[in-house]
Amino acid sequence: MGLSSRRRFLNLIVNNHIQGARSLRQIDLTRHKLFNTTPPLPQNQNTSESDALQPQETTLWAGNPKIKNKNLRTIRLPDPIFDFRSSPTDFLWYIDCLPLSNGSSKILCADQSGRTALFDADTRMAEAMPFLHRHKFSPLSIFVPGAGDVNGGSLYIMDSRPDRELGLGLGHDDATQPSYQFESFVYRSHAMSWQHERLPRPPFVRDPKLYENSSTRSVITSHAVIAGGGGAAAGAAQVCLSVDRAGTYCLDTATHAWTQVGEWTLPFIGKVQYVPELKLWFGVCGKDMRLGAADLSAMAVVGSSQPPKLVGAWKEFEAPEGWTEVRRPQIVSLGSGRFCVARFFRALDYLMALFDRYGEPGEEYYTVLTGTDVVPCVTNSGSVSGSNGEVELRMIRHNSRCHVSYGSDFNIETVF
Fold first, then answer.
1. Fewer CB within 10 Å, N- or C-terminus of the chain?
2. Residue 343: what pLDDT?
3. How far apart are CA 332 and CA 273, in angstroms?
4. Which has the higher per-residue pLDDT, 354 or 115?
5. What is the structure's pLDDT at 324?
6. Partners of 283 in the β-ladder
7. 385 pLDDT exceeds 70?
8. Could you give the residue ranges of the DSSP H alpha helices within 102-165?
9. pTM of the predicted model, to two decimals?
10. How many C-beta neighbours within 10 Å does residue 124 have?
11. CA 284 to chain CA mean position, Å
12. Which residues contact 40 (CB under 8 A, 6 or more apart)?
């Protein structure tokens, strides 16, 4: 993927003011100048680290912790491409919007009744999908290209906080029994349609030790695709799940067999994305919520039991005083080592207290989008390819843009 393959548009899922309703919108990154026009240069023996990390034009620098709110450039949301609303079948209406994959303009929507539909932001077309066997209370989606027929793929839908699943009989635990919490949509090229499958139950939902306390559930803390579907290793793709108190498991997309890789968990939280140009996986570090990178390719090797380590971690934005981060950040890979990092904040507006009958300050919600480049840099003499020098990753900060909302209406929920 070259520079010309970098994405121009950023997709947003926005919370509307109607219960169970969302909208899909697009931001033109070139119009809002999230990235500087001068391409970043890898650091070598002739380029200092400070020069490599500075923006290439005079715009807002996201790394200034003392920046005032008025100096943080704001953006207005464009008109919706699609409006989604859950089916009115129950008193509680809600809808989940799950991006198909990184770099894709498609999104899967599922409501509380299990109805699903696939929307494409680029073509402005919608496609009917099979019903879920059971709706998910906190779903996550993982797309594996080529896991189905030729030119096909599989979309895995899983509950991120799964219940315990026992066998059918008393004291019986059948590992091959299909799960109602782990499902997949497989695209069959010959039929030109998506077909529905239930997956075998993973080992951690059958472990009674994880469910000794009825008020707690196991939580899938991070997920990734390795091997054939997301890395350089040969063979079938592996869907990797890290589960708190249980370890890390891989699902073979060809055989649908679960394997425990280790009792450790990945150093990330949420979705982990593979960047082929850098041959590394990127995600949000679970320890400090920074953008981080690690090599997960060894997890595809049978018998590998060592947890992967971070090879780099960077903080691209320092919040102004009085801002509180309210949700985990989201990372979107835009191609060729370029990322957009979205962070979500809340702040109190004490000026609004003057107009409130009880003197209560108002709440403002901020979504900050920051453009970054991660590039290989030579720290000693040599070339970027690594000959006669040591190569490490460096982050180049570009610009930040901010969207402001009040209350839950028109909050940005998902960036992809």
1. N
2. 97
3. 8
4. 115
5. 92
6. 292
7. no
8. none
9. 0.84
10. 11
11. 9
12. 52, 56, 373, 375, 396
